[in-house]
Amino acid sequence: MSTTSAAGNSPGPGTTTTTTRPRTRATSAYSALSKAGYKAYTRDKTTLFFTFAFPLLFLIVFGLIFHGMTVEESGRPYINYIAPGVLSWGVANAAVFGVGFVIMQWRRDDILRLIRMTPTPLPTILGSRYVLALAIGTVQAAMFVLVAMLPFFGLEPAGSWPLALPVLFLGITAFLAVGVIVGSFARTPEAVAAVANCLMVPMAFLSGSFFPLDAMPGWMRDVSLVLPLRYFNDGISAAITGDGGGGDILVACGGITAFAVVFGAIALKTFRWSDQS
Q: What would the DSSP string read from start to end of 147-199?
């Protein structure tokens, strides 16, 4: 009778275990989807341009309208409200529209169904879009703040501005989930645009992205408390302008995280691989 040692039962150097194979396939799929998403995005010059120019256009318009003015209720310059609010709205808008259109198109063209046959898990697909959204949002924010710091606008970031990064990442996470939900239900590009605009434009006004909440009626301030963009605005504003301490930023992060968890659960529950499923 021969005895087999424990070492003899272990896989040799050239052997691939069953646990590493799925991981390897998932990593390869993630890398391929990320590269494809990046190439598709950078090749679409129109989308690329308006993703970054759209928030800057609002900054310029509101900067011209309220140049040199202060908010009567607080005495602070309008730029302290305009820049963080428009920045958070622009980043959130790009996250919703970006993933919403992609999910809708991939589902309509049966690309998702083909990807599923590989098989590639849903987290890998969404993860590749998530990293791209984070990169886009970070570049958006950097460009926006640099323009807002020009002498004409006069934004002076506080020393706490690095704290805007976790708020930014959490905000992108929450609104990316919203985009997945929109893309899972909409069947045409027009439907994605209509639904996303119906969500994001009213939310911008009700959450204080375009006008200070301090100058709005009490009922609008109450409504804003149930909107994720309100917490995104508050967190970015507190970090960049220094109007508020770390506690305000933590409250904003907590609110955004709660919305991200809820929207993420809904997105996973309602995700459709094809129009027939």
A: HHTSTTT-----TTGGGHHHHHHHHHHHHHHHHHHHHHH--SHHHHHHHHHHH
Whole-structure pTM value: 0.84
CA atoms within 13 A on the CB side of 54: 15
Residue 181 CB: number of other CB atoms within 10 A?
Answer: 23
145, 83 Cβ separation under 8 angstroms: yes
Question: In the chain, what is the straight-line distance between the N-terminal and C-terminal CA atoms, in Å?
Answer: 57
Residues 111-135 pLDDT 10s: 888 888 877 788 888 888 899 999 9
Which amino acid is it at 119?
A: P
Nearest to 181 by CA among 99, 89, 115, 275: 99
Q: Quick check: 120 and 29 in contact, CB under 8 A?
A: yes
d(CA 46, CA 110): 25
- Sign for the CA dihedral angle at 118, 122, 126, 128 comes to negative
Distance CA 75, CA 221 (A): 19
Long-range contacts of 36-40 (CB under 8 A, 24+ apart): 37/102, 37/128, 37/129, 37/132, 38/132
**Nearest alpha carbon to residue 108 among 185, 198, 197:** 185
SS3 212: coil
Give per-residue pLDDT as tens, 181-200: 999 999 899 999 999 999 99
Question: Which tokens hold the place of 130?
Answer: 């998530």
